[in-house]
Amino acid sequence: MTDFVTPREMAEMIPSGCKLGLAPDDYAAAPGLVRMLIDRGIRDLHVVCAPIGGMQVDMLIGAGAVATLETSAVSLGEAGGAPCFSRAVRDGSIRLRDATCPAVFAGLTASEKGVPFMPIRGIIGSDVLKKRDDWKVTSNPFDDSEKIVVVSAIQPDIALFHAPEADRSGNVRLGRRRETMLLAHASKTAFVTVERISETSLLEDEKLAAGVLPAIYVGAVARLEKGGWPTGLYAEYPRDGQEVEKYARAARSPEGFQAYLRDSRSAA
Amino acid sequence: MSEACTSRELMIYTISRLLRGVRHVAVGQSSPMPAAGAMLLRALNERDGQERVQVSILGSVKHNSFTGGAEELFDCAAQGRLDAFFLGGGQIDGQGNVNLVGTGDYPNNQVRWPGSFGSAYLYFLVPRVILFREEHSLRSLVERVDFVSAPGVSDETVYRRGGPHALLTNAALFSFDREAGRFRLESTHPGYDWRDIRGTTGFSYDNEQCEITTPLPDEATLSLMRDRIREELRECYPQFAGGLPGPG
User: Fold this and answer.
1) Cα–Cα distance, B220 to B151 (Å, whole number)
2) Contact list, A241 vs chain B (CB under 8 Å)
3) Which fold has domain B87-115+133-215?
4) What is the ipTM of this complex?
5) For residue B21, what are the contacts with CB-CB under 8 A and spacing of at least 6?
6) Do the Cβ atoms of A129 and B120 come within 8 Å?
7) What is the third-level CATH fold of A3-99+156-263?
8) Per the CB < 8 Å rule, is A98 touching B122?
């Protein structure tokens, strides 16, 4: 059963210390709810970026909420590097698990299928592999002459993302954003903020159904209009480039980051 | 006469030349010039009645036909359905290794870049990987990268059908010889000669005393860039598109 809750309630339902799977900026990121997690002082998160992070991840790091970060990259896109992330790397204040995008997908796919690992091409000879004790090089069991990488399954406790709409049963429309579908399938549960609630079932229309995440995977839904702001929501609204720029400039210093948090809270 | 070809326009045009003959080219996040080069090839082929080019721009709604999510790009690459891709890199070395992670010792790098993205995988599987790094300097083109996000060459025990094809900077164009694991200087851009390139490249390469100048686009190609390509770029790269020459 899917719970329908307020965004604040959803923020309370995500415990400190959990393994939290997040979608990329501009696709299905949930900066609106992430902001509430920061406000309530969440700590010690193991963040899994599926497969990369942006502004919401940088803010979580800046707020001291992240203990471990598993990602293929963190970037603010056209606004440049992620300032809190870079600072945390230098200070050693987060535990880093650098990845490469398809290896994150392979790990999530393993979890989705309930198998312990997934083989994947490439990666051999990369220093990324040397730093990962949960990735191994093995030989192809069907051809001993070939070496191949296997990555262990990645199962977040909670997937958190933003989507255009959910219906009253908790089915969520994701459209083409299948990587978000994968993240939800792989996680123990998914918490979703949405722009709108549909009064008719999203599974009734055959044209929509293939792009719908069934309620089976969805633990909670909260309506949060513009929950993807200031980064965008795929095919609904683009990122607010000026706001992300403003953040990028402010977050260059820890003081500037704190001031940004303070000012944007009072505006909300 | 219109405004002369800018350095960025020359790089975009050169990317389109490097892509000639591909059927499917994909462009990663935060890569406005590779996106422009791929769009230019598509437009030129359309104009000249040549083979249609599939362009997949990650982050775009209009210029991306994948319906299987972000993982579809990687699946396409593994199956041989993708002919060309681009990698940047804070550091690129003479063996074609790329570093997208940072300088100094991992994990507490003094300078940290975003991360390896899909490089550690796509470099092995996409036949024509174009290395694109605007800055041509001793700090970007180094003898040995501080961190190998993706290696330039592999031994025969590793499945590999892809790898570096060319390296393009704001000053020169190199090709890559996969057998030798070395770059070769192919041309220098207008305003640079081979001595400039030798002085600002941190690794050794072949054909050092190259006298060839990178060719400029003709007027018709330039105006295509300034109208259609600039418009197509606006969706994903509004700031970059706004900074290119063109009307409005």
Assistant:
1) 39
2) 238-239
3) Glutaconate Coenzyme A-transferase (3.40.1080)
4) 0.95
5) none
6) yes
7) Glutaconate Coenzyme A-transferase (3.40.1080)
8) no
CB distance B109–A241 less than 8 Å? no
Q: How far apart are CA A44 and CA A14, in angstroms?
A: 12
pTM: 0.95
Structure tokens at A130: 């040397």
- β-bridge mates for residue A194, sequence order: A163, A223
Nearest Cα of chain B lies from the Cα of A199 at a distance, in angstroms, of 26
| Closest in A101, A125, A178 to B148, CB measured | A125
B155-178 pLDDT, tens digit per residue, is 999 999 999 999 999 999 999 999
Burial A43-76 (b: 16+ CB within 10 A, else e): eebbbbbbbbbbbbbbbbbbbbbbeebbbbbbbb
B194 in contact with chain A, both atoms CB, cutoff 8 A: no
pLDDT in tens, A124-177: 999 999 999 999 999 999 999 999 999 999 999 999 999 999 999 999 999 999
Of A122, A180, A181, the CB nearest to B120: A122
Question: CA of B38, closest CA in chain A: separation in Å?
Answer: 19
Q: Which of A52, A98, A105 sits opposite B101 (nearest CB)?
A: A98
